[in-house]
Amino acid sequence: MGMAAAEAESGGMTEYIKHHLTHLTVNEGQGFWAVHIDSVVFKLSIAALFLVVFITVSRRATSGVPGKFQAFVEMVVEFVDGLVKETFHGKSRLIAPLAITIFCMVFLENFLDMIPVDLLPLLGQKLGVAHLRIVPTADLNTTIGMALCVFLLIQYVGIKHKGIVTFFGEFVSAPFHAHGPVGKILTAAPNLLLRLIEEAVRPLSLSLRLFGNMYAGELIFILIAALTLGSSLAHVSTYLFGTAQFIAGFVWTAFHILVITLQAFIFMMLTIVYLSMAAEHH
Fold first, then answer.
1. What is the pLDDT of residues 66-75, one digit of tens each?
2. Catalytic one of 45, 92, 141, 205
3. C-alpha distances in Å from residue 169, one per residue of 20, 137, 155, 274
C-alpha cells in the first residue's frame, strides 16, 4: 500500500504499471547493448542458490535413511533422470545434469513471481534503486539467452553424435529423401529451407513461450495490486476492493504455482526432445 499510494500521487495506475515493468538498465536506449541489471543479478543469485543447495546436499548425503530435504532432492533427480532415459536415446553424460539444472533454475526464477510485487521494488527505492523487476524469466532478454544456449547445445550434440559431414549433410537430405543425383539436387533446396525454419523455430518456441506466460503472470499480479491504488481508509470502496484484491490474489497465486512449475517442466522437456532429435540418425 505504501508504494501504491506514492505511485497514485505521481500519475495513477498507468505510472504504477510502467514503474513495475521497467528494468534497471545500463546503456538504456541503445538497443542490443542495453543490459537489464536486475535480471542479471537475480538470475546469478538463483544460480548461486541452486549450486549451494545441491552441493551441500551432495556432500551431506548419506547411504542410510536420508533426511527430508535429501529425500526431496533425490526424488527430483530420479524423476528427471527417468525422463531423460525415456526421451534421449543417445549416449551422453551431459543431458541428465543439464535437464536437472534447467528445471531447477527455471522453476526458481519463476518462483520469484510469488514475492509480493511491491516488496522488493519498495526496498530498492529505499536503497536508491529507481526500478527493480525481480522475475528474470519475465524478461525476453533472459529467455532468449537461455534458448540460444540450448540452440548451441543442439548443434554440439548433433555434431558429436553424427560427425560434421553427416550432421550438416542432413540439412539438404532430410526430410525429403531422393535417389540419384538429379533427385538429390531437386530436393536439396526444399530440405534446406525446411531445416532452417525448424532450427529457427526451436529457440523462438522456447523463449517466447516461457516469456509470454511469465510476463502475463507478472502483469496480472500488478493489476491485482493496483485495485487499491491510492485508496483511502475512510472510503467504503477501499474495503470492497481490498476484499476483492485478497481473493483474486489468493486464487491467482494458487493457479500461478501450477503455471510456473509447468513452464519449467516444458522448457526442460523441449530441451531434451530437441537434443534427442539432434542425436538421432535420420
1. 778 888 888 8
2. 205
3. 48, 35, 13, 18
Q: Mind listing the pLDDT tens digit for each residue in 171-194? A: 888 777 777 777 777 888 888 999
Please state the domain count of the chain.
1
For the chain, the three-class secondary structure string (H helix, E strand, C coil) is CHHHHHHHHCCHHHHHHHHHCCCCEECCCCHHHCEEHHHHHHHHHHHHHHHHHHHHHHHHCCCCCCCHHHHHHHHHHHHHHHHHHHHCCCCCCCHHHHHHHHHHHHHHHHHHHHCCCCHHHHHHHHCCCCCCCCCHHHCHHHHHHHHHHHHHHHHHHHHHHHCHHHHHHHHHHCCCCCCHHHHHHHHHHHHHHHHHHHHHHHHHHHHHHHHHHHHHHHHHHHHHHHHHCCCCCCCHHHHHHHHHHHHHHHHHHHHHHHHHHHHHHHHHHHHHHHHHHHHCCC
Among this protein's residues, is 133 annotated catalytic?
Answer: no
Q: How many residues does the chain have?
A: 282
| 60 tagged catalytic | no
Q: Among the options 110, 213, 231, 276, which is catalytic?
A: 213
Does 59 qualify as catalytic in the annotation? no
Residues 6+ positions from 270 with CB-CB distance below 8 Å:
202, 205, 206
State pTM to two decimals. 0.86
Q: How far apart are CA 223 and CA 226, in angstroms?
A: 5
Q: Can you give the residue range of the structural domain that contains 68?
A: 2-279
